[in-house]
Design brief:
By secondary structure, the chain is an alpha+beta fold. The chain is built from 13 helices and 22 strands. β8 and β9 form a beta hairpin. The longest helix is centred in the last third of the chain and has 19 residues.
Length: 415
C-alpha cells in the first residue's frame, strides 16, 4: 500500500472520532487510523451532561453560536458557516439519533443517554472503515523530508507507522509541559489554565445553606470587570451553578493571575439597583409594616437564604418591618445586592472540565484546520486555543473542527 493512502488521527474523543469519520466517509480509498493511548473511547462524551451528553446548543446562525466562546469566537465564525449546530443535528439524525431542545437551549438525545451518542459515533466509524487502535501512544512523531510523518507507536499496537497526513485531537491538558511535543513540531502554545470551575469559599457566610439555589443572580469579581448572570447554587465548598461556571470561563486567565484568590460579590436581585430596591422596600413597609422581616421572604428568595441574609444584617426574628432600624435595612440591602464571598481556590466541575489554552489559532488555517507551519498536520477540538461556556458549545467546536479537518485530509490528493 502506498503510504500516501494512510492518514492517522491522534485522540479518541469527540473531535478525533468526528475527524476520522468525516475523512473515511469522504474518501473510502484512504486507510484511516484512530489512535487512543488509553482504553477509553469517547470518555468525555459519556460523562457530559450528567450522563445525558449535551451534544450542542440550539443556534440557527454562526453569529449566535460565537457569542458563547471566551476564546476562539472570531476564528470560529467561518467554520460554523461550514458546519454549525444545525448541521450537527442533521448529522446525528441521519444516523438514527434524534435530539431534543431544552428550555435553556441545550440539546440532548431524546433517549437522555450519552451512550446513544457514543454508540452512534462508534457505529459510524466502524461503518466507514476507521481502524481504531487503543492502548497505543504516538511516542515520537517525525516530519519526513518528502512530506508526511513517521509515528513511533508504543503499547498494544507498537509499530512504525508512516502516514501522509496527521490530525491531532488529543484534547486539552492542564500543564504547559504536556504541550512540549507540539512545540517540537513547530507550534506556539497559549499557556493552559483551567476554565469552567466552581468557587471554593471556606469562610462562606452561606456555608449553612448547601443545596440552596436561585434561578437568576449576578456574580461579579470585586475590582474587576468580570460578571455574569444566571442560576447560582450554594454548595458545601462554596458556590457553583451556570453563573459561576460561565464567569470562570470568561475570566479564566485573569482568575488564574489572581491565583483564584478574590472576592465574589453576589447580587440575589440583579434586576434591582440600590435606589430601586430602597424605594421598593419603602413601599412594602408602608403596606406590610406588621409583617415579621425574618420569617417572610421577599422576591421569591428561598426561606433559608432570606433567613441567613436577615441574620447577617443583625435583624432578630421578632422584628417587624415598621420597627426595622435604618442601619439594619441598609445592611439587608447590602446583603441582597452584594453578598461578599472570599474565594480561596477552585474546584473543577467534573462534567465540564475544559482547558483555556492550546495551539495558537493564528498558526492554523481555520477553513481546513491545517497547520500553517507544518504541511499535512491538522488540529481539532480542545487541543486548540478554543473553549466555550457550558451548554453544548465545547462539543460543537469539537464536531466543527473535527469535521473540517477530516474533510480536508480526505480531499488532499495522494502522491
Amino acid at each position: 500500500m502506498n503510504d500516501n493512502e494512510v492518514v492517522a488521527i491522534l485522540g479518541g474523543g469527540a473531535a478525533g472520532f468526528f475527524g476520522a469519520i468525516a475523512c473515511a466517509e469522504a474518501n473510502p480509498r484512504l486507510t484511516v487510523y484512530l489512535i487512543e493511548k488509553t482504553g477509553k473511547l469517547l470518555s468525555k462524551v459519556r460523562i457530559s451532561g450528567g450522563g445525558r451528553c449535551n451534544v450542542t446548543h440550539a443556534a440557527d446562525t454562526p453569529a449566535q453560536l460565537v457569542q458563547h466562546y471566551p476564546r476562539g469566537a472570531k476564528q470560529l465564525k467561518e467554520p460554523f458557516k461550514q458546519f454549525g449546530a444545525v448541521d450537527t443535528v442533521r448529522w446525528f439524525e441521519r444516523r438514527g439519533v434524534r435530539l431534543k431542545t431544552e428550555a435553556d437551549g441545550r440539546m440532548f438525545p431524546v433517549t437522555d443517554s450519552s451512550e446513544t451518542i457514543a454508540q452512534a459515533l462508534l457505529t459510524a466509524a466502524d461503518k466507514a472503515g476507521v481502524r481504531i487502535l487503543t492502548y497505543t501512544a504516538a511516542e515520537h512523531i517525525t516530519t519526513l523530508p518528502a512530506g508526511g510523518f513517521r509515528l513511533h507507536l508504543t503499547g498494544t499496537h507498537a509499530q512504525e507507522l508512516v502516514v501522509a497526513r496527521l490530525l491531532i485531537a488529543t484534547g486539552g491538558a492542564p500543564k504547559a509541559a504536556q504541550y512540549d511535543w507540539l512545540r517540537a513540531l513547530g507550534h506556539t502554545i497559549a499557556e493552559p489554565v483551567p476554565s469552567l470551575f466552581t468557587f471554593n469559599v471556606p469562610e462562606s457566610p452561606l456555608r449553612e445553606l448547601p443545596g440552596v439555589s436561585v434561578p437568576h443572580a449576578r456574580v461579579r469579581i470585586a475590582g474587576e470587570k468580570l460578571e455574569y448572570e444566571g442560576p447560582i447554587l450554594v454548595t458545601h465548598w462554596g458556590v457553583s451553578g451556570p453563573a459561576v461556571l460561565k464567569l470562570s470561563a470568561w475570566g479564566a486567565r485573569r482568575l488564574h493571575e489572581l491565583a483564584h484568590r478574590h472576592t465574589a460579590l453576589v447580587s440575589w436581585l440583579p434586576t434591582h439597583t440600590e435606589d430601586s430596591l430602597r424605594q421598593w422596600l419603602l413601599e412594602f413597609r408602608g403596606q406590610h409594616g406588621k409583617k415579621l422581616v425574618a420569617s417572610n421572604p421577599l422576591f421569591g428568595l428561598p426561606q433559608r437564604l432570606w433567613r441567613t441574609l436577615t441574620e447577617q444584617a443583625g435583624i432578630s426574628t421578632e422584628v417587624k418591618w415598621n420597627e426595622l432600624p435604618v442601619k439594619s435595612q441598609n445592611r439587608l440591602i447590602e446583603g441582597l445586592l452584594r453578598t461578599a464571598l472570599p474565594v480561596q481556590g477552585k474546584t473543577t466541575y467534573k462534567d465540564e472540565f475544559v482547558t483555556c489554552g492550546g495551539v495558537v489559532l493564528g498558526e492554523v488555517d481555520m477553513k481546513t484546520m491545517q497547520s500553517r507551519r507544518v504541511p499535512g498536520l491538522y488540529f481539532a477540538g480542545e487541543v486548540l486555543d478554543i473553549d466555550g461556556i457550558t451548554g453544548g458549545f465545547n462539543f460543537q467546536a469539537a464536531w466543527t473542527t473535527g469535521y473540517l479537518a477530516g474533510r480536508a485530509m480526505a480531499a488532499t490528493p495522494a502522491g
